[in-house]
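Exercise 7. Given the encoded structure of a 542-residue chain, write a plausible sequence.
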């Protein structure tokens, strides 16, 4: 994210821009300064922008503006203060608008004229009728440029301090709105998912992946097949192949740096299964809350609240996973409890994919499977607990206080439907321990235990990150239940159709995906925030 300050001459861009940049602690670049230094290095002459324009003409000056934009177009986390005419060029505009907040400074036109004429009339003004020519040009530029502004600040009145703080307030509003985008996840590696379970397709757009990284449809398909319905006797019998199509951002199996768009068609929706519950709120589903919030809902399978949306996350997560694997990061997620049957603690990571419940021990897996089938026979469903281990995370990921890695991971996992709780390390058991038992003592250059689950102060310690996640029993059950219809009358419901009697096994690849996206984003951010750290640990994309 970067801030681009633009607007008419004498609107206060330089003074206010530098002040704001200092207060919020980001570097600033002024395109006029870049133009003057490029000109001086090319010609050996030190001239102001005004003088360059007068001596060399408009076209020459416009080329210098394009060169200045080229110098800074890839910078992030900075303030860019542009000259008054620079963004009139659509090429400059499209480069500087990308990933930016655009702030337009303006002022009363007479005040602007007073400031401009005192500082020397700009060369693009008709000297015969300078004031009218200034107003005309001001109006022309404003008509073109104003619509691009995210924030408009009038600098006619107020001290620099007051105006700067007004900008900072608006900036934080704008940032929080952008960060709050509920269909997008991540800051530097951003994933947006789209689509509903009974629409034509679902998919994801992943942005922020640099060019040159090997990725193929097979890499993504491999992960999607792990989440796909119809894998075993305990998953839904829906026949979705979940075939992924890469629409953009990958050429000859390498990323191009452009947004990667991934599409999965909905092949087997059978929407008529939902006809009889069109006006009824299914217990345990988001039907009631969507209706109360939006006043309209797609009754066919829950729309955006459907577990189907998570296929889009898995497609994006597959890319993050592959990138992290190159850096030696391994994510293991497995069932440790289903319907009251606990994992024995035996077995190995290699066994996880060898049974339908994804448990490391075949014997425990069999018991869990039997329990699920028993519940299904009774028209009911089961929940469970998943343990996640993330190995190979370097120390230093996570940004106190609101960007802690623990809060980011929890938020990523809690965004998955049916997840009702998350704990780290010894989690809720810590309540029973003493400090002497809970602390991870250190000796010989390392931690002697990992009660904290690989996180201290919300920052990764370098030890494995360990989490446990509670998944509730599947809401759609065949047993009769009491509920309300959209007229708020009492009715009875039986949810037929094709549902997992236990969501846990299919939620596991979704959890791995959300973890991979979170770690990749946190690593990319840390590498940018602390170049010294990056010298040791590198960028996740290297
Ligand atoms: C992979 C996956 C598949 C899911 N499949 C189903 C399903 O077949 N039937 C169902 O009732 N809920 C299913 N869910 C859960 C619902 O999406 C979720 O419980 C519901 O939207 C209510 O949200 P909440 O549980 O977070 O409150 C699934 C969730 C995931 C992650």
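Solution.
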């Amino acid at each position: 994210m970067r801030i681009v300050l633009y607007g008419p001459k004498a609107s206060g861009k330089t003074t206010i821009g530098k002040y704001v940049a200092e207060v919020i602690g980001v570097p600033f670049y002024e395109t006029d300064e870049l133009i003057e230094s490029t000109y001086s290095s090319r010609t050996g002459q030190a001239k102001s922008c005004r003088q360059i324009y007068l001596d060399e003409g408009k076209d020459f000056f416009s080329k210098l503006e394009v060169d200045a934009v080229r110098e800074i177009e890839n910078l992030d986390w900075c303030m860019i203060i542009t000259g008054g005419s620079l963004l009139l060029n659509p090429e400059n505009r499209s480069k500087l608008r990308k990933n930016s907040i655009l702030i337009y400074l303006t002022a009363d036109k007479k005040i602007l004229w007073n400031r401009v004429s005192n500082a020397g009339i700009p060369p693009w003004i008709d000297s015969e009728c300078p004031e009218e020519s200034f107003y005309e040009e001001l109006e022309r530029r404003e008509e073109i440029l104003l619509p691009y502004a995210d924030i408009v600040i009038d600098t006619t009145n107020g001290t620099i301090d007051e105006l700067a703080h007004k900008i900072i307030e608006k900036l934080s509003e704008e940032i929080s709105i952008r960060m709050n985008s509920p269909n997008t996840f991540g800051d530097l590696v951003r994933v947006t998912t789209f689509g509903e379970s009974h629409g034509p397709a679902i998919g994801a757009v992943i942005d922020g992946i640099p060019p040159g990284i090997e990725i193929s449809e097979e890499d993504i398909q491999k992960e999607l097949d792990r989440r796909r319905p119809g894998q075993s006797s305990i998953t839904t019998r829906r026949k979705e192949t979940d075939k992924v199509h890469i629409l953009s951002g990958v050429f000859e199996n390498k990323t191009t740096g452009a947004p990667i768009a991934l599409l999965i068609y909905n092949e087997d929706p059978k929407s008529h299964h939902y006809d009889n519950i069109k006006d009824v709120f299914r217990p345990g589903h988001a039907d009631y809350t969507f209706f109360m919030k939006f006043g309209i809902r797609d009754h066919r399978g829950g729309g955006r609240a459907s577990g189907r949306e998570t296929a889009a996350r898995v497609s994006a997560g597959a890319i993050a996973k592959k990138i992290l694997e190159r850096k030696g990061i391994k994510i293991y997620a497995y069932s440790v409890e289903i319907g009251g049957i606990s994992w024995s603690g035996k077995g190995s990571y290699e066994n996880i994919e060898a049974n339908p419940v994804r448990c490391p021990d075949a014997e425990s897996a069999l018991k869990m499977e039997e329990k699920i089938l028993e519940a299904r026979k009774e028209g009911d469903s089961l929940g469970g607990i998943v343990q996640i281990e993330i190995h190979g995370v370097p120390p230093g990921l996570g940004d106190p206080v609101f960007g802690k890695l623990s809060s980011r991971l929890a938020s990523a996992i809690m965004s998955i439907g049916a997840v009702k709780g998350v704990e780290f390390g010894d989690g809720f058991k810590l309540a029973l321990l003493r400090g002497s038992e809970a602390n991870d003592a250190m000796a010989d250059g390392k931690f002697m235990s990992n009660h904290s689950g690989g996180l201290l102060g919300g920052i990764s310690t370098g030890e494995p990150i360990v989490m446990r996640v509670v998944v509730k029993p599947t809401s759609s059950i065949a047993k009769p239940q009491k509920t309300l219809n959209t007229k708020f009358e009492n009715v009875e419901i039986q949810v037929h159709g094709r549902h997992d009697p236990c969501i846990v096994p299919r939620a596991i690849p979704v959890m791995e995906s959300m973890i991979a996206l979170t770690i990749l984003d946190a690593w990319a951010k840390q590498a940018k925030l602390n170049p010294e750290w990056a010298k040791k640990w590198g960028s996740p994309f290297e």
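Remark. The chain has two domains: 2-179, 184-537. Students should compare their own answers with the one above.
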